[in-house]
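Q: Is it fine to ask for two folds in a single conversation?
A: Yes, each is treated on its own. Send the first.
Q: Here.
A: Result:
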Amino acid sequence: MKGKLSVAFYGLIVGICLSNWLLIGVVKNNALALLMTLALLFLLLGEIGKTLTGKASGILIDSRNRISLSRLQMVGWTVVVLSGVTVAAAYNLSIDAANPLNFTIPNELLIAMGIAGTSAVASPLVLATTRNPAPLAATTVADGQADPAAVAAAPTPAPATPAIATLHAKCSIDEAAWADLFKGEDAGTAGSVDISKVQQFFFTLLLLAVYALSMADAFTSGSRIGSLPALDQTFLYLLGISHATYLTYKAVPKPGPA
C-alpha cells in the first residue's frame, strides 16, 4: 500500500544490522560486509520508492515521471558512502566499544558528494530556465497520475518558441522506464539517445565501483579504521569536468525534427 512502510522495510534495516554483526564480528570479513551493506541499502531505497510511488524505482523518478540520471548519481554516492560509514562504525565497535564513530570522512569525498548533489539540484533548474515547460506538468495529481478533468479543462498551450525546445513529460508514473536514463529531455528528442547521458552514466558507474573497491581493500587491515579512503585529486577533476560538461550539454535546447 502506498504511503505505508511495509514489513520488508523494517526487515531490511534489521538485515543490515545483523549482516554487519555476523560478517564483521563472526566471519571477520569487512569487505563482504561492505558489499552486503551496499546491496541491502539499494534494496531499502527500492522499498521506500515502492512505498511512496508503487514502483521500486520511485526514488529516482522526477516530477516529469521520468527516471532521472542526476537522481541516480546522487543516490549512488549516498549509498556507497553510507555503506562505508556503516561498516567502519561496526568494525570499530567490534574491536573497541569506545567511540566507534571516531573516524574521519576525507574532504575530497565530501566534495565528490557535493558535486553529485549540486548536479541533481542544478539539472532541473537548467532545464526549467532553458526550455518551455512540459505540457503535462500542471495536470498531474499527487500520486503522479494524470488528472483527466484537469487535462480536459486545461487551456491549449501557446505554440512553443521555435528556438526553445519543450520539455518532455509522461502522463503517468507507470510510464517511467530505465531507458529514460539515456534519452533526450526534450519533446523532440525523447525518442533518441542522448550521448552525454550515456557517457555520464558509465563514467559515474566506473567511479563508484572503483571507490567501493578501494574501501573494501582499505577495510581488510586488522587495525582500527580511522578514516574512509581519500580520493585522488585527478579523480575529483574528472568528476567535476564530467558533471560540468553534462550540465552544459543539457542547457542547450534541442528542438528535434519538425
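Q: Second one now.
A: Result:
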Amino acid sequence: MFFNRKKKETIAAIEITDANFEELVINSDQGVLLDFWAPWCGPCKVIGPIVDELSTEYAGKAVIGKVNVDANPKLSAHFKIKSIPTLVFIKNKVMIEKISGMVPKPNLAVMIDDLIKYETAAS
C-alpha cells in the first residue's frame, strides 16, 4: 500500500507573481534567479525540485523564485517567455541571462555563484 503514496510536493523557492515582483525582485540587492514554469510542463517538473534545492542552499545569498506562467501573464510577457522552463538571471534590476530548457544542478549552481559575484555597471 505504500507504493500508491505520492511524494508530497514541497516548494522551497519563493513564488514570484505579477503583484510581488517589484518588492521581491526589483527591490532586491541580491542576485535573482527566476524559474518560469507551468504545472502541466513535463521538463518543469524535472527542473523544479532542483530549483527548490538550490533555493534552500543559497538562502540569504540569492533570491531564487518561481513564476507560474499561466498565473502571471504580465511577467511572462515582460520577459518574452516563449518556452518553458526558462531561467532568468537578474542583478541590480538588469537581466543578465535567459536560458530555456534543462540545466543540470551543478551547472546551475555555478551560474548562481557567478550571479552572486557579478557586478553590473549600475553597482
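Q: Anything structural to flag on that second result?
A: Two points. The first strand starts at residue 14 and ends at 15. Residues 5-9 have pLDDT under 50 and may be disordered.
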